[in-house]
Amino acid sequence: MLTNLSDIDLKLLRVFVAVAQAQGVSAAQEPLQMNQSTISTHLSTLETRLGFRLCQRGRSGFMLTPKGERILIACRTLFSAARDFTRVSQSLNGLLTGDLQIGLVDNLASLPGSPFSQALKQFLQRRQDVQLHCRICSPGEIEQGLLNRQLDLGIGYFGQQLAALSYRPWLAETQAVYCSSDHPLFTQPNPGREQIENARWIQRGYLLAQQLCPLAPADLGAVAFHMESVVHLILSGEYVGYLPTHYAARWVERGELRQLGGPPLSYQATLSLATRPQPTEDALTALLEDLQRQGGTLS
Q: In the listed set 64, 87, 110, which residue is the last one of a domain according to the structure?
């Protein structure tokens, strides 16, 4: 039975949290940089220390026990409190510290002027010792990560904004319809609205495009959650779909994509900064300030 937490116990608890988040021992090997045998040994040691089983694991699959679920919640509370303590103590010295978990949609690198990179540059020139963790996510994954406290900041398109999160408009960009050079519409001089609307389309895996775009295509032949998935499907020659104009530009220049319908069939989409309400972390507040200095409207 565990009566006092030692450094060893904290290490074992972190292993348990990583396994729970990865939904299995095997999947936790890469984030923990440990082999399966070592992870299993750590879990068994922790269960012995606690006096009860945390999870079912083996050929039947991975599943937390009811006590394991409660310990996972307690671990997240414990580690969050430890991070808060570190942030407070170091911020009193004017130093920005801690970890920032950032989720991004996958087409920010092509934004004119590289506003995200420029904001990071400004942030990194501050007096700081912050560990940045960046990952590519769909809008839904960003919102879920914020709700689960696995992300601190998300940048993406959010069609239905959740009451439990805070959203700040950041950049407005133009999205237009494209087909590839292998699509029948590519060689037609001026394909009409009806022809474009009746083509086979790619549906976004989130609501933004369906809410804003001026078309209502009936033949939705594929679903995509990331812009790179959209462009792969368009390049197959079988589909048309919306892409940000800055993102599509490289393929247009090479003659591989063509914009269809021009401005009448285009729409403005807003990239937003999503956080939990009223963030208290000094590092996150500072990064939001640097990002908002780079905000605006793109052509």
A: 87
Q: Say which residue the tokens 């990239």 belong to.
A: 271
In a domain, 93, yes or no: no
Chain CA centroid to CA 39, Å:
27
Would you give the DSSP letter of residue 186? G
pLDDT lower than 70: segments of the chain: 1-3, 90-91, 207-212, 296-299
Q: Is residue 2 assigned to a domain? A: no
What is residue 98's predicted lDDT score, i.e. its pLDDT? Answer: 83
Domain boundary among the residues 87, 115, 143 is at 87
Distance between CA atoms of 196 and 62, rounded to whole angstroms? 47
Q: Is the pTM of this model over 0.90?
A: no
SS3 260: strand
Q: Which of 169, 201, 171 minimizes the C-alpha distance to 110?
A: 171
- DSSP code of residue 125: T
CATH number at residue 21: 1.10.10.10
Per-residue confidence (pLDDT) for residue 215, from 0 to 100: 81
Q: Are 177 and 265 in contact (CB under 8 A)?
A: yes
The torsion angles phi and psi of 12, rounded to 5 degrees, stand at -65, -40
Q: Count Cα atoms within 13 angstroms, Cβ side, for 245.
A: 18
Interior angle at CA 288, CA 284 and CA 292, nearest 5: 175
Q: What is the pLDDT of residues 210-231, one digit of tens each?
A: 556 788 888 889 999 899 999 9
**C-beta separation of 55 from 19 below 8 A:** yes
Q: Which domain holds residue 218?
A: 98-299
Block residue for tokens 């462009």:
231
pLDDT of residue 246: 94
